[in-house]
Structures are given as C-alpha cells and as structure tokens.
Design a protein that fits this description.
There is one protein chain. The protein folds into 3 domains: 61 residues; 244 residues, Sandwich (Immunoglobulin-like), CATH 2.60.40; 109 residues, Immunoglobulin-like. Helices cover 14% and strands 41% of the residues. It has 4 helices and 28 strands. The two termini are 80 Å apart. 27% of the residues are buried. This is Ig-like domain-containing protein. It comes from Phasianus colchicus.
C-alpha cells in the first residue's frame, strides 16, 4: 500500500493476512505528517493533566479541612497524690498527708484512668499551652504526680530588681492555688494551677505558669556538648530566669537572665543560654547548653522562672561518664625458664570512680579462662589517681610464678568492668618461654616472599645472566 499524500514513511514492516499469503506494507507515520493534528493532541493532553491536578488539589483541600475540623483525642487522665501540706511558694511540692486525686484535661469526663484507688478530688484542668497534656498521650508510662496547695507571692531572684505585681497577681485574681509536679522519664513539668468554681468532689483549675523539660534525665560523655532543655508557658509578661547547679551538697547559680533588660547578670564560662519562642503559642524556650561538660558538671540542675504573679521550677539530673582506656605491659611477654615476670594493667581516663579489674588465665592458649590462682604469686591494685579533667586512673599488677616449660603459650588477660562499658573490656598477652619457640608460619611465609621478590629483582636487573642457560638448552 502506497503512503498517502502528506505522510512521511520512515520504514515498512510486513503483515501476513490469511492463507493467501498477501503481504501489506505498513507505513510508519511520524508526527511531522500532521503538525496540526499533533498540536491538538498535545493541547488535549495538557488539559487532561491540568484537570487531574485540579481534582487532586480539591480532594487534598477537603481532606485537610475535615482533618482540622476533627478535634484531637483528649489525653488520658493522670492520677495524683494531693498533699495537705502547703507548697513552698509555687516551687516544688512540699510534704504532708496524701489523698488520691485525678487530673482531667480539656473537659474530658469519660476516659477511664489507670487502675488505682477511687479519687477523692478530681481536677478539671484547662491547659491552653499543652504543658501537661503530653503526660496523658499514649503510648506512655504512668506518670508520677503530686499536687500541693500553695500561696504564690510576688517574688524575685535576690540578684535582680523586684518584679512588680500586676493585674494577673494572685491578690487580684483570687481563688485557690496549687502546684503540680508531674513527670515521666522522658518528660516532666511543674505547673502553677489557679482554681475556680466547681461541684462537690470536682475542682476546675487553669494552668497559670508551667515550667517543663524534655530531658529530665541526661547521660552524656565527658567533653560532648549537651543541651539541658527547659521551657515555660505563661501569658506575655516580663520574666527572670535562673539556672542553678547543685552537687554534693553545694549549689551555685550558673546563669541568670532578665527579659526586661535583655541582659544576663550572672554567667559562667562554658554555659550558654538558648532563648527562643515557638510560633506565638506562649511557650518560651530557655535551654542551657554546656559546651564541654566535665565530671564536675554532674549533678542536679534547677531551671527556675520568676513572673510577677509567682514562680515555679523544674529539676533535671545530669550524669557524666567516660569509658576507660586499658593497656597491658609488657606487650611481648618473653620469659627465661625459671624466672618470674610481672604484668601491669593500666586503666585510665574513666568516670565515674567505680571500676573492677580482674586477672584471667588460659593454659596453653586454649580452653576456658580461669582465675590464675596457681600461676600468680602476688597481685595488687593502686589507688585512684584523678586527672585535671576529673577522670580517674588506676593500675593493677600480677607477679607470675617462675616460668616452666608447661607454661609456654599460656595467655593472661586483664578484664575491666565499668558502668560506661557495654561489656567488660579484655586485653591479653601470651607467655613465651625463651629458647623453646620455633619459627612461626608467619615468619616462614615472610621469608619466602622476600626470597621470591629478590629473585625477580635479580632477573630484571641482569637479564643476560639467564640467556646462556636458555641457549644451551635450545642447542641440546
């Protein structure tokens, strides 16, 4: 079949039809043959693609509207111990007789609490900043919770100017006040609650100020920069921040900040304040950064926030660690028959203090490791030595009995156990008896390789030396 007018044939292919064996040549028509038809086809494809995008956009917008309209599930209620003793001015809870209580959030009255005693008092808590609600969102461990009645006062840090009371002070707002300390291993918060009206056995309360942390317990390596997270939720107001460090019965102010002057009256080298807010939701981050934590930085950290209407604080625990470095001397234990040797295991640069060093012996280098009672005459361990960076070192030694032929090949190991190690660290050495050790397979292999390389080098430097032998063989 001939190509029609206006067609461009770029090749033909054969098609067999029926039993008569007719062959029809099919012309492959390119888009250049119908430029107008090709243009219309492209326009239709573009319109279809645009329509698909429009429909997808409408579907996604409808999904987002429906998703935003559906309220998130209410957090589960939290069981608390309501203490009758008065708290310490809006800070941490005090002591006293405990009564079972329950915190419910967001007006939820149906979600069952964790199994426990029947609450005598239920607090319906309004938490506009979501400071306490993460404790009730599964999956979670049952949080600890203490409630204490308190009488917040207009207070200030001793090193700053007084914060004057305003319309949000307790004297103007009235009502009952409680301080709630709640937390899990991953999250903790201390909140100042202002009580309102309520029915018998139920009290409505609102979070007036909450100080929270995502890092209530931290474990960091010596010299590794770390962030001690702290944030507070409150209405807009001037505030004063204080970071305090307590260790071994002594305390000191590491850093202090006054928002009204944007200045830090107290600072400490190596401690930095990371100040920030989250998109206008009323939560202000006041995280402390330790540039190079050392063993001396271990201990309890208190993040305190002072406002005109009261103050509260949260507590963080920082543990510092450093795994030990272990070396065994001598590295090569070659002993003359009839003489004794001394092994020294040096354990250095570790923290905390507690470390265990033991000796193990494996006869002939095979079999299980055992305590070397029969091959050690005496052993001793030095006291702890503290380095300038706060880490510790100590040395353990073992004096072996005089060497005998049967001791050849014995393996002695120094085994170190420390809290910073996932498993005990072992360093070993093999005892070799002088005069009884033959060549090793490694030595023989090395000598063979050296001889092979020298032979090849000679043949490359003096190629004519091998030719007379080759010519003699050819003539024969």
């Amino acid at each position: 079949m001939q190509a029609q007018k206006g067609q461009i044939c770029t090749g033909t292919s054969s098609l067999h039809l029926g039993s008569g064996g007719f062959i029809i040549n099919i012309c492959e028509v390119t888009e250049e043959a119908w430029p107008q038809r090709s243009r219309k086809r492209k326009q239709r494809r573009a319109m279809a693609a645009g329509l698909r995008l429009l429909l997808a956009g409408l579907f996604w917008s409808q999904f987002r509207v429906e998703f935003a309209a559906s309220p998130p599930p209410s957090p589960a209620p939290v069981r608390c111990a309501l203490l009758e003793g008065e708290g310490r001015g809006g800070g941490l809870p005090g002591g006293g007789k405990a009564r079972p209580a329950l915190l419910r959030f967001g007006g939820d009255a149906e979600t069952p609490p964790e199994p426990g005693p029947e609450p005598e008092v239920t607090f319906s808590v309004s938490d506009p900043w979501g400071a306490l609600t993460p404790l009730g969102v599964p999956p979670r461990a049952p949080p600890s919770c203490e409630l204490n009645p308190t009488n917040p006062q207009t207070v200030s840090a001793p090193w700053s100017r007084p914060l004057h009371p305003d319309a949000r002070s307790p004297q103007a707002a009235g009502g009952q006040w409680w301080v709630a300390a709640v937390g899990t291993p991953q999250y903790s918060a201390t909140a100042l609650l202002q009580g309102g009206t309520g029915t018998e056995g139920t009290i409505t309360a609102a979070v007036s100020l909450a100080v929270l942390t995502n890092t209530p317990t931290l474990r960091v390596r010596v010299g590794s920069p770390t962030h001690l997270h702290c944030a507070f939720a409150a209405p807009p107001s001037p505030f004063i921040l204080e970071w305090r460090h307590q260790s071994r019965g002594a305390g000191r102010v590491l850093l202090a900040y006054d928002s009204s002057t944007a200045r830090a009256p107290r600072t400490t080298p190596g401690a930095e304040l990371l100040l920030g807010t989250r998109d206008g939701d009323g939560v202000t981050a006041v995280t402390l950064r330790l540039v190079r934590p050392s063993p001396g930085d271990e201990g309890t950290y208190i993040c305190s926030v002072f406002l005109p209407h009261g103050h509260t604080q949260t507590v963080l625990q920082l543990d510092v660690f450093e795994p030990p470095k272990v070396t065994l001397s001598p590295k090569n234990l070659v002993v003359t028959p009839g003489t004794s040797a001394e092994l020294q295991c040096h354990v250095s640069g570790f923290y905390p203090l507690d470390v265990t060093v033991t000796w193990q012996h494996r006869a002939g280098g095979s079999g299980p490791s055992r305590s070397p009672r029969d091959t050690v005459m005496d052993s001793w361990t030095s006291g702890h030595r503290q380095a300038a960076d706060g880490t510790y070192s100590r040395t353990a030694a073992a004096r072996l009995i005089p060497a005998r032929p049967q001791h050849h090949g014995d393996v002695y190991s120094c085994v170190v156990t420390h809290t910073a190690l996932a498993k005990p660290m072992r360093v070993s050495v093999r005892l070799l008896l002088a005069g009884t050790e033959g060549p090793h397979l490694e030595d023989i292999t090395g000598l063979f390789l050296v001889a092979f390389i020298l032979c090849g080098l000679i043949r490359w430097l003096y190629p004519t030396a091998a030719r007379p032998e080759e010519e003699t063989k050819k003539s024969q």
